[in-house]
Amino acid sequence: MPLPLSPHSQAIADFLAALDGFPVLQGPRVRLRGPREDDAAALFALFGDARVTRFWSRPPMQDIAEARELIEQIHAGMQARSLLNWAIADENDALVGTCTLFRFDAAHRRAELGYALHADHWGRGLASEATALALDWAVDRVGLHRIDAGIDPDNQASRALLHRHGFLTEGRQRESFFVGERVTDSELLGLLASDWRQRRATAAAALR
């Protein structure tokens, strides 16, 4: 029998349970929304690109049917409240990436962050903007205390993005996941809610 949750942890569990679909998060250039059936082609273009999946935990998609299946899995995960896998949509509402909060743990007030962006949009700061929207929501609305992230240690761009957001590299798991027959380590990073609030305050002060 699970232990009873503290009032704060129970509030997190209740908040997630009460969600009426994917929350829509709007930024200056991107919007996080739930994926739709008509996103399948764009999702296949994203995860069918070997440049994107080079550091991913699965090989590139080979057929659009895989993208359609992924959309179904995303909605099932939302229904189970096991993950929130948003579409990153551009100014035309076209899917250009994904941003995910998953492994929610209300008892310990934490979750994990993941993201992917189509290679055509790299270098524009869109992934940074999208993940900042998710972090704002996780800290301010959900009330999480900590956000984790795991990356391939060779993924320098992803590490740089997370470090800019205030994540700290906290360790490394050896040979922790396979992509086909290739096994790789995981670099483990963490962000506390207090870190994120301080990072935002510093950024806001710099703009004054």
From TrEMBL:
- What's the short name of a Pfam family annotated to this entry? Acetyltransf_3
Query: Sorted alphabetically, which InterPro entries does this protein's record hold?
Result: Acyl_CoA_acyltransferase, GNAT_dom, Ribosomal_N-acetyltransferase
CDD domains per UniProt: NAT_SF (cd04301)
Q: Name one GO molecular function term.
A: protein-N-terminal-alanine acetyltransferase activity
Q: Which UniProt keywords apply?
A: Transferase
GO CC terms for this protein? cytoplasm
Q: What is this protein called?
A: Acetyltransferase (GNAT) family
Protein species of origin: Lysobacter enzymogenes
Q: What is the taxonomic lineage of the source species?
A: Bacteria, Pseudomonadati, Pseudomonadota, Gammaproteobacteria, Lysobacterales
